[in-house]
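Intended use. Records like the one below are meant for learning the mapping from a protein sequence to its folded structure. Do not use them to infer anything beyond what is encoded.
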Amino acid sequence: MKKSLVVVVFALLAAFSGCCNDSGKVVIYPNEGGKTIAEFGGVKLSEKYIKTYVDNLNDYLKARYNTPERKEELMTKIAEGELVAMKAIKDGALDDPILLSQIKNTIARYYSGTKMKVQIEESLKISEDEMKKYYEEKKDTFNTPEKIKASHILIKITDSRDKEAARKLAEKVAAEAEKGAKDMGSFAKLAEKYSEDDGSRKRGGDLGYFQRTEEGGSMVKEFSDGAFALQNVGDISKPVESQFGFHIIKLTGKKDKVEKTFEDVKANIENTLKTEKRKTAYNDMIESYKKELGFKFNKDAALAIEISASESAKTASENFDKNQQKPKLQKPILTKEQLEQIRKQQEELKKNGGEQTPNPNMKLQLGKPVKKQ
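Structure written out for the chain above:
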């Protein structure tokens, strides 16, 4: 039954897709154009009409049915589908509101994807001035900010270690780091020995690449300022104080700022503006159809229609909505196990020549990740 319904839908759609006589009335079975392929119930299926099916097949099916035997099979199926469609119509299929709504919905989707789409695409003209204006307004989004890579050793202020004691220990560790500056693995060993940032200590203090805090970076400002003050890869800072304690920072990599010109991003801008105009053009076209056909909408009556759904579907929908929400969390949201998993992923990325890419929704405060506010 379901297969027959599909056949009927496609048969009717083919009939409604431009088969009209001079008076504009829909001709469900046009018989003009070439030889008669099949006939039944007093109608004839013309070669031209049947070809509308064939032309709309994908290339795979065209290749599959390109032998005489299979071509006969295909043409027979098409003719039988038309036969079933006629029988369905005679038995009142078009009186079924479900089938009728499916047919009209399919016709609407077909029309919006053909004639409407062509008209919209023809209207999408983006001028050079529009693109340049967009570029000037959003220039910063096209640029890649300066980034540095650093490792650190964190000495915390605790109940058993006051600020002064923490500073002295940090100065001692910084002096040790300076002595072994030429040894590539020295700083990592010191981090594993002294650092109290569990998130980076197991990685030898490595924090990956980050940008300045003022430019959207993920580090607290004091740490960012101290790290960016270092000039050359390999430089080690004096103890830098932040809300987490004292940091000894080693600069391990630099990436210069990349500024893209208008010509570099022109094609992307054009596509972006076309996407925006495409949506506006479609909405404008729908509004013009409403005016042309005197469209009226009874909102109150529409909202009074009951939409019933199973409890499982309602639960699934509610869960989806909850997952889309982004709550503002201030407490640490990563467990030690999750941090260890991230560490392993980062190490794997480095082995493969990749870059550690922090979650853009996460503000990493040196061992205390919190959601951006």
